Amino acid sequence: MARTWLSIRVELVSGQGADFWPRPGRVLAAARSHSFAQLAESIDVAFGRWDLAHLHMFTLGDGTGVSPLEWWDGEAPDGTVDGRSTKLGRLEAGEQFAYVFDMGDSWAHLCTVAEKRIDPLDELGAEPGRPTPYWGWGSLPDQYARRWDGDDGESRMPKRPPHGGLGDLPPLLPWWGDQGRRA
Length: 183
Prior knowledge:
The chain is an alpha+beta fold. It has a single domain, classed as MM3350-like (Structural Genomics Hypothetical 15.5 Kd Protein In mrcA-pckA Intergenic Region, Chain A, Roll), CATH 3.10.290.30. It contains three helices and nine strands, in the order βββαβββββαβα. Strands 1, 2, 3, 4, 5, 6, 7, 8 and 9 form a nine-stranded mixed sheet that branches. It is globular and about 60 Å long.
């Protein structure tokens, strides 16, 4: 396969009122025939989000908004085009655009199209049916700022288990559970 796919660098700039530095990021391979809606879903998954039932919008360099129009119930900002039918082929090499997931928490990302196209077989070993991450870095914040299962934002941090925090685990690996203490 030829070098026909886009390589899109996506950096998490801010969210929930915090700015991130260094910015965590992912690089996604995407065909020009993929839609912006597919790119949005792939970004969300690559950034560890599981509650995908939030509005999202891309803002292109010319100010055009791209978002699934049916999600807005007729209230989409003027000039917004439908992300389900708008293809990534409209992007140019070197172009930068923004992506915001969850308009309340405003998870804002800077997206940059690489100058050169890529071959998905070289980068991924296959031609996936949707945009797919192939590189990444940085720690990702939890979508709802939860630090542990059951975190309600007010409770104290749970006490760490004994033996370096591994003492409560079943002894499936040599360093887990009580056997790790004996080793």
